[in-house]
Write a structure and sequence with these properties.
Blueprint lengths: L1 H15 L2 E10 L4 H4 L7 E6 L12 E3 L1 E3 L2 E3 L2 E5 L3 E5 L8 E3 L6 E2 L8 E5 L4 E7 L6 E7 L4 E3 L5 E7 L2 E8 L5 H7 L1 E5 L4 E2 L3 E4 L30
Parallel strand pairs: 1-17, 1-18, 3-7, 6-12
Antiparallel strand pairs: 1-14, 2-13, 2-15, 4-5, 7-10, 8-9, 8-11, 11-12, 15-16
Length: about 230
């Protein structure tokens, strides 16, 4: 009973001394049709404590990346190291989500409609996700080392809640921005007791060149797989 009270008290104190960081982004010089229509979703922000001795809580979370209408939805997911992403197949066809290109490699194999498979992520990094059946399907999983993160909505807004006041390095990831541009946007910030609202952050997509990917065997996709209706087999 005493242990349970101590756990409750620690959680209460943590939340009582937590603040909120919020902000908004705009995407410029974009070749993406959605971004040109002012859809600024899919940018990931996360906070890394400057003090390496600061306690970083592990928040057990599940995220979901649906496979529906031959798309991964949402296109960008962020999760803390140790978290799990579920891949439900909501299409009337088979899918095979995999990653062989960056971050954590995985291959959940071919699985039928109406089923779901989980993948746990044990190290930080950017995971590019594809479908071995449909070449046009792609997504991003950003595995971050802290629980203080968020992904922008269509309006470009993000909110990171329950942040203990202190000094942090603000990190940014956007798949259509060059690494040098993202590094330029990183900054050290101070989150006060009352929270912090950042000024508008502008992210340029200048220099981004889309690239085709190979299938999980390292081979080019047959031209028909982009919109195919594969129903089984290997």
């Amino acid at each position: 009973m005493i242990l349970r009270w101590l756990i409750f008290s620690s959680a209460f104190l943590y939340l009582a001394h937590a603040a909120t960081l919020s902000g908004q982004v705009e995407l410029t010089n974009s070749q993406d049709s959605a971004a040109r229509k002012h859809n600024y979703s899919g940018v990931v922000f996360w906070l890394q404590p400057v003090d390496r001795d600061q306690h970083i809580p592990v928040v057990s979370r599940h995220a979901e990346m649906k496979q529906q209408n031959k798309h991964f939805t949402p296109h960008v997911v962020a999760i803390q190291v140790g978290g799990t992403v579920d891949f439900p197949n909501l299409d009337p066809i088979f899918h095979n989500a995999f990653s062989k290109f960056a971050g954590q490699q995985f291959d959940i194999g071919l699985y039928p409609p109406g089923t779901s498979k989980p993948v746990s992520f044990g190290k930080p990094g950017i995971v590019q996700v594809f479908c071995n059946i449909h070449s046009t399907m792609s997504a991003i999983i950003d595995v971050v080392p802290t629980p203080w993160y968020d992904v922008t909505n269509a309006a470009g807004k993000f909110t990171i809640a329950n942040v203990p006041p202190g000094e942090y390095q603000l990190h940014v990831y956007h798949e259509r921005a060059l690494p040098a541009n993202l590094q330029f946007l990183e900054r050290r910030i101070t989150v006060p007791d009352g929270g912090l609202v950042l000024p508008l952050i502008s992210i340029t997509e200048t220099g981004f060149v889309p690239a085709e990917h190979l299938d999980k065997h390292g081979m080019p996709y047959p031209k028909s797989t982009g919109s195919g209706t594969y129903m089984g087999g290997h």
